[in-house]
Design goal:
Helix content of chain A: 25-40%
Oligomer: heterodimer
Largest sheet of chain B: 3 strands, antiparallel
CATH architecture of chain B: Alpha-Beta Complex
CATH class of the largest domain in chain A: Alpha Beta
Protein name (chain B): MbtH-like domain-containing protein
CATH architecture of the largest domain in chain A: 2-Layer Sandwich
Number of strands of chain B: 3
Number of domains of chain A: 7
Number of helices of chain B: 2
GO cellular component, one term (chain B): cytosol
Number of strands of chain A: 46
CATH superfamily of chain B: Structural Genomics, Unknown Function 30-nov-00 1gh9 Mol_id
Shape of chain A: globular
Strand order of the largest sheet of chain B: 2-1-3
Strand content of chain A: 15-25%
Protein name (chain A): Non-ribosomal peptide synthetase
Distance between the termini of chain A: 60 Å
CATH superfamily of the largest domain in chain A: Nonribosomal peptide synthetase, condensation domain
Structural class of chain A: alpha/beta
Number of helices of chain A: 37
Pfam families (chain B): MbtH (PF03621)
Largest sheet of chain A: 14 strands, mixed
Organism (chain B): Phyllobacterium endophyticum
């Protein structure tokens, strides 16, 4: 025990005689090892313990304590051994002591800065796990008072709880306190785990998790950044905070009162935070288990901690205490079924076809006894909350999160909200989740506030504002309509005359008048006359469906109908209303003076009919007071003046259309009224130029066309302002119009009719950028406030999606004749001090960082499909990114054939564009997760629009069932190929122009086709590459007919053209090049690529070929095509070894810019040269007998004999060992290409090829990637930095595995980035 | 797994403001300023049905009064 401090041993070779036995690693250790292999030390950073000792403690004493603690804990002496082939085991030598570095002395101590720098450098120094022990210690003499000791332990043998153990023991040893005996199981943990994984107990634990988590799970977390890709870079951010002692004391008291542990209260606060931020009450998140039974008993230093997934259901009305209890029971059940998390992930994420979502995205960790003040990071999960008691009796806490995934400001706020939840939870007994207030009153005040507006409104109604200009500037232009020019005086006098007539007909307060003429100056006269008479107008578009119009006329209780004689037939009979035909009406006897009817602020001004999602249109009744105030506020926000000349393009059947003519006229300005319901973009821009428009208001559904035309012809006149609205405005459209419309200002208006015209606007300078699917909808206008609320009417924090509510003065009275619907949509305003109502919009929104509101989608536009919550707008945005797509719409509908819910997309091409549906579909497959790719895409000439210029979702056609035209073979060769295909594919009828791969063909099918062809035509040299390059019956038959000249290639041209250097793709075992297609698609038309056929599928295959022989063909081809030219290599799986060897062989003959290595593993240990298999007594003979028996039954006997024939005695023993370790019986289903036996044969053949191969150093640029799943499995990934000085540490691709990484979009984007870098 | 607690069904009330506009409000949430609970309660739908019966004049109270005065003065 009193052994002197050992010198640094890291340089000394391991003396193998020193240890008796080495042991396997745990799965967690294997994962850490794999990460270490690829050079990643950020997921699991080193564990650090720093202690400051008073100078009464001597250096010698501390050194002795270090030696003593190392003697107790094998972890501090752990060494690792790599066996031939790469298997890793751990062992510990009894006499080892971790190296101790001592800096400074009594006579020459380090000052504080020096000490800090030395400590930081010591921590940053990498470990050499194969060359030394896994812990080291630094002692620094700092000034007169302190010795600072810093232990750094590799995470492979240490966790957070172990650091506490170490601290406790060091202190005890230095202060001469006794230590109790210890059962150090660190060495044996891996072995025990291996054994346990074979037991029934493991099987039943796994069954528990399969049942609990299932396939359709949704790990909850905080909202992620817009466009957060599935790739999480390694940069981490921390948001630290403290909770004062009073809170922690109250939490502990609360826990005690309720018979639970305090950390369960903290965990519940975290769970509530997640539920409130995600809106999801079916919680799935993780908690960190120290996984040490009882923390007061003696403990070994080891890596024991485990991530435990918790899944439970809560409700907004659950009490906080209920949540605590749910956590306690979930944790207890989970702990009793604990399986290594790495294994759990593999077992749950079995869906190979789609990228996998993490099971745990957010993690709660409570550290019971955290040493010293600095908290160790927690970076093996997207987002973690770590909480630990501190010295002052309070709590230290921090969020540790991936910088690429979460907005730091959002996490900072979440930290504040966590504290609010905790405080309210423990101070308010019986409090429920939904009662907890996250957003404070003052924050809400700021977020909900309208646009700053210092002006004051008067109470004069709109028509009085307009009439005032007839006196002030009577001759000024008010309306330009085709060839007509109306002055303010003419407009006012006409309106007055008609008003007098209407009054005589009984029009007055709350009496309605239908304006059933098309958009025209007469219509405006009719509207103003109605208002002047004290009545309420109802716009009725003559062109709209008669059933709709009849409903409006009856439901609106109209007293007078203003129309034209030629429209009379469209007016239904039996109405109790006077019909005035404006073209025949003689008003010359009516006075042209103001009738001077005074109106009450609560009197109705208009009734606007809106199409609901179902049923008949509803009449929204709007009063004068809110209307005039809205108009005056809007004037100021829009900057309207008597100079304003606006082109209002919005239809009169939408309230926005009325706002946009009233506004200029109220200010004494003028309007250019379109004389047709629709103008072409050319007509619109011409009118603007001709009449000197400075403002224009355009429906969003028309903007894209207008902007495209303006872009094409550069014909947009300079303007002061464009405003638009009616639908969510997609980013691409906004960027385009921002660029081409030459406007100083842009206003994105938003608003339900129920809250009067445009209650919210986002006003920006052209060129403004925004993040998000749709343009922001900004802030409230005028006497209104807007709120983003959850279903319990709690305000959502910034960044959290909720429903938009609008409150204040600016809202409608309600729905005509529908008191219940009015009461349902207009609810009491809980935020108002003096009464009032809130209108529930049905739109999903969130507050942005700057307090403006972002439109996310309709409440009923968010759908759930196969357990996934899908925002249809995201799919639409992806469609709009495709070339030629002008408009897009996605709906969830029932598939008529299968009665299943499917996503259907509708697309409208841009002007002059042709859409290829298949291209769009494959582009979506690249850019969206599989569950979001629509089952059908339907091209439409135009979107069906309802009478209010809004999309009519109910008029969308069902997707037509796919009709395939079967083209019959035309010649004997085609007939022959067709017959073979039909046998192999056993599908329905096949057309000679069907693509092999799109009707279910795959690599194995291709081989079968070739074998069948070979039987019929033994002389044929057609290869698999020929089939890949010519994937239809017609083109393939031509190749066969052409004979030797064209056939016989081992090379697949993945993309022939493009200006970038050629990318050569080297295949792995049993991999064809077909798998690269998605990748090549992603890299785009400028990236040429060539694939080589996998050797095991090739025609020249020979037993016992060497790697050199295999790459021969590749090297020749590359030399012939890229000699002296720049190019890239890509090697996937074992293909990485081939790529590397080809690069070595070609040397300077080519200008190789970069080799990209994708999940390249070393050969397993089984067949490594020098690996000597161990057999139990008699086992070898019995295995030999098993093999003999098996061979006698195998249909591939001849092939096996050839393969076994080239094995020497040692190799055959390795083969027997391999057979003995296989869990399943030896397969006898060969020789078919898809049989297990055939695959087994290929595997052994490859093992023989690669076992003789030694990697040699070569100076070449290499970038590598590793699939997450391969790390979880502890696969033996190659660290290319061992062979090339220009290799980088590997990046991790999450949510994918060895087989599917090549199709992973996260990988594609990283690869594209690296290729560009190397260009 | 779910929280082991039976949640009582939510109850709502018919509420009315000073202008005699009607709406509905959950009983377990503080009633906003300016509103008073009416005698009718039940599920949200039941409350809305009741409102359909009782809210016969859609005009706000102040307008109704003003129109009545005007009518009388004619």
């Amino acid at each position: 025990m009193n052994k002197p401090v050992a010198p640094d041993q890291s340089g000394k070779p391991v003396d193998v005689e020193d240890f008796s036995r080495s042991f396997p690693l745990t799965l967690a250790q294997k994962r850490i090892w794999s990460l270490e292999q690829i050079g990643n030390s950020s997921v699991f950073p080193p564990q650090v313990l720093t202690l400051d000792w008073e100078r009464s403690v001597s250096l010698d004493r501390i050194q002795k304590a270090v030696a003593a603690v190392a003697a107790r804990h094998s972890a501090l002496r752990m060494r690792f051994l790599r066996f031939a082939g790469g298997r890793i085991e751990q062992f510990a030598n009894a006499g080892d002591v971790p190296p101790i570095e001592t800096l400074g002395s009594d006579s020459n101590p380090l000052d504080a800065d020096e000490a800090d720098a030395a400590r930081a450098a010591f921590i940053a120094r990498p470990f050499d796990l194969l060359g030394g022990v896994s812990a080291r210690c630094q002692l620094i003499v700092c000034g007169r008072d302190t010795i600072r000791s810093t232990f750094v332990l590799h995470p492979i043998i240490c966790d957070v709880a172990a650091i506490s153990v170490l601290q406790r023991e060091l202190v005890a040893l230095v202060t001469d306190e006794p230590l109790v005996p210890l059962d150090d199981d660190c060495l044996l943990r891996g072995l025990r785990e291996e054994e346990w994984l074979e037991t029934e107990s493991f099987a039943s634990a796994l069954a528990y998790w399969r049942k609990l988590i299932g396939e359709d799970y949704n790990a909850v977390t905080l909202p992620v950044r817009f466009n957060a890709s599935s790739y999480a870079g390694s940069t981490r951010l921390h948001a630290a905070f403290e909770l004062e002692a009073t809170v922690w004391t109250e939490v502990q008291a609360y826990a005690k009162r309720n018979g639970i542990e305090p950390q369960h209260v903290l965990s519940a606060a975290f769970a509530i935070l997640l539920a409130r931020y995600s809106g999801n009450h079916e919680l799935l998140y993780g908690t960190l288990l120290a996984n040490r039974c009882g923390d007061k008993s003696p403990q070994a230093v080891s890596r024991s901690e485990q991530v435990l997934p918790l899944r439970f259901q809560v409700a907004p009305r659950s009490r906080v205490l209920d949540v605590c209890h749910a956590i306690v029971s979930a944790e207890a059940e989970g702990t009793s079924n604990l399986v290594p998390f790495e294994r759990l992930v593999q077992e749950i994420q079995t869906h190979e076809e789609r990228e996998q979502d993490a099971i745990v995205k957010s993690l709660f960790e409570f550290r019971r006894s955290q040493p010293v003040s600095s908290l160790q990071p927690r970076s093996d999960v997207e987002l973690a909350l770590v909480v630990a008691p501190n010295e002052t009796g309070g709590l230290n806490a921090f969020f540790d999160h991936a910088a690429d995934i979460y907005e730091p400001a959002l996490v900072e706020r979440a930290a504040t909200h966590f504290q609010r939840i905790l405080r309210q939870a423990v101070t308010t007994p019986e409090i429920r989740m939904k009662d907890i207030e996250l957003v404070a009153e003052d924050e809400l005040e700021l977020l909900s506030a309208p646009y700053a507006d210092d002006g004051t409104n008067d109470d004069r109604p709109v028509h009085e504002h307009i009439a005032a200009h007839a006196i002030r500037t009577p001759d000024k232009t008010a309306i330009i309509f085709a060839d007509e020019v109306w002055s303010h005086r003419r407009l006012d006098q006409n309106a007055n005359r008609l008003a007098h007539r209407l009054i005589k007909l009984g029009v007055g307060a709350d009496v309605s008048v239908a304006i059933a003429v098309k958009r025209s100056p007469e219509a405006i006269v009719g509207i103003l006359a109605t208002l002047k008479a004290g009545g309420a107008y109802i716009p009725v578009e003559p062109d709209h469906p008669t059933t709709r119009n009849h409903h409006i006329l009856r439901d609106g209780g109209v007293k007078v109908i203003l129309t034209n004689s030629w429209l009379l037939e469209r007016i239904p009979d039996g109405l109790d209303a006077t019909i005035l035909e404006l073209d025949k009406l003689d008003l010359s006897q009516e006075p042209d003076t103001d009738p001077k009817v005074s109106v009450h602020t609560n009197q109705l001004a208009y009734i606007m009919y809106t199409s609901g999602s179902t049923g008949l249109p509803k009449g929204v009744a709007v009063e004068h007071g809110p209307l005039t105030h809205h108009m005056q506020n809007t004037s100021r926000v829009y900057g309207m003046s008597e100079e304003s000349r606006e082109l209002p393009f919005l239809p009169f059947s939408s309230d926005g259309g009325h706002e946009r003519w009233m506004n200029p006229l109220m200010e004494g300005g003028s309007i250019i009224l379109p004389d047709q319901p629709l103008w072409t973009p050319e007509e619109t821009l011409t009118a603007m130029r001709k009449h000197g428009a400075n403002n224009a208001s355009i429906p969003t559904t028309y903007l894209q066309q207008l902007a495209e035309w303006a872009d094409l012809t550069d014909s947009a006149p300079p303007m002061r302002l464009y405003s638009f609205g009616g639908e969510g405005l997609a980013q691409q459209t906004f960027d385009l119009l921002s660029k081409v419309l030459k406007s100083e200002w842009l206003i994105n208006g938003y608003g339900p009719t129920e809250t009067i015209m445009t209650p919210m606007v986002w006003k920006v300078r052209a060129g403004q950028k925004f993040e998000g699917t749709y343009a922001p909808i900004g802030r409230a206008v005028g006497n209104r406030r807007v709120y983003v609320l959850d279903p319990d009417l709690n305000p959502c924090p910034i960044g959290v999606t909720g429903e938009l509510y609008i409150g204040g003065e600016g809202m409608a009275r309600g729905y005509i004749g529908k008191p219940d619907t009015t009461a349902d949509r207009f609810i009491p305003d809980p935020f108002s001090k003096d009464g009032g109502r809130l209108y529930r919009s049905g739109d999903l929104t969130r507050w942005r960082e700057d307090g403006t509101v972002e439109f996310v989608g309709r409440v009923d536009h968010q759908v759930k499909l196969r357990g996934y919550r899908i925002e249809l707008g995201e799919i639409e945005a992806a469609l709009l990114e495709q070339d030629g797509v002008g408009e897009a719409l996605v709906v969830l509908r029932d598939d008529e054939a299968t009665k299943q819910k499917i996503l259907v997309a509708y697309v409208v091409p841009k002007q002059g564009a042709e859409l290829t549906i298949a291209t769009i579909h494959s582009a979506l497959e690249r850019s969206l997760p599989g569950y979001m790719v629509p089952s059908a895409i339907v091209a439409l000439k135009s979107m069906p629009i309802n009478p209010n210029s809004k999309l009519d979702r109910f008029a969308l056609p069902a997707p037509a069932p796919v009709e395939r035209t079967i083209i019959a073979p035309e010649n004997p060769a085609e007939e022959e190929v067709l017959e073979i295909w039909q046998n192999v594919l056993s599908s329905g009828p096949i057309s000679v122009e069907d693509n092999f791969f799109s009707i279910g063909g795959n690599s194995l099918g291709a081989i079968r086709i070739l074998s069948a062809l070979r039987q019929r035509r033994p002389q044929s040299r057609t290869t698999i590459a020929d089939l890949f390059n010519n994937p239809t019956i017609r083109s393939f038959a031509k190749i066969i007919d052409a004979g030797d000249e064209r056939a016989g290639s081992e090379v697949i041209v993945l993309r022939a053209s493009g200006s970038k250097p050629m990318l050569y793709c080297f295949p792995g075992l049993l991999v064809s090049t077909r798998e690269y297609v998605k990748l090549v698609d992603y890299l785009g038309p400028d990236q040429p690529a060539t694939g080589f056929i996998c050797y095991s599928l090739s025609e020249q295959k020979q037993i016992g070929a060497s790697v050199d022989e295999i790459i021969e063909g590749y090297v020749d081809y590359i030399r012939a095509h890229s000699k002296g030219k720049p190019c890239y290599f890509l090697g996937w799986s074992w293909g990485g070894l081939l790529a590397y060897e080809a690069a070595r062989r070609l040397g300077n003959e080519i200008d190789l810019r970069l080799i990209t290595m994708v999940d390249v593993c070393d050969l397993g240990t089984e067949f490594a040269i020098g690996s000597v298999p161990r057999f139990k007594q008699g086992e070898r003979d019995s295995l030999h007998q098993t093999v003999e028996d098996w061979l006698s039954r195998s249909a591939m006997r001849a092939e096996w004999d050839r393969l076994l024939g080239v094995m020497d005695g040692d190799t055959y023993n390795q083969f027997l060992r391999f057979v003995g370790d296989e869990k399943e019986a030896l397969p006898t289903d060969g020789p078919d290409i898809s049989s297990r036996e055939h695959t087994f044969w290929i595997l052994i053949d490859n093992a023989l090829i690669f076992r003789r191969h030694q990697l040699q150093p070569h100076d070449v640029a290499i970038h590598s990637w590793a699939a997450d799943d391969s790390l979880n499995r502890g696969l033996n990934l190659i660290d290319w930095r061992r062979y090339s000085p220009r290799a980088n540490p590997a990046e991790i691709i999450s949510g994918t595995n060895h087989l599917h990484v090549i199709g992973s979009q996260a990988f594609h984007s990283r690869l594209a980035h690296r290729l560009d870098e190397a260009l | 797994m779910s929280v082991p607690v039976a949640l009582e069904p939510e109850t709502w009330s018919v509420v009315r403001d000073q202008e005699e506009r009607y709406s509905v409000w959950p009983d377990d949430k503080a009633l906003p300023a300016g509103w008073s609970r009416q005698a009718h309660g039940g599920t949200r739908d039941e409350c809305l049905k009741k409102i359909k019966e009782v809210w016969s004049d859609p005009r706000p109270r102040s307008l109704r009064l003003a129109m009545n005065i005007q009518a009388r003065s004619r």
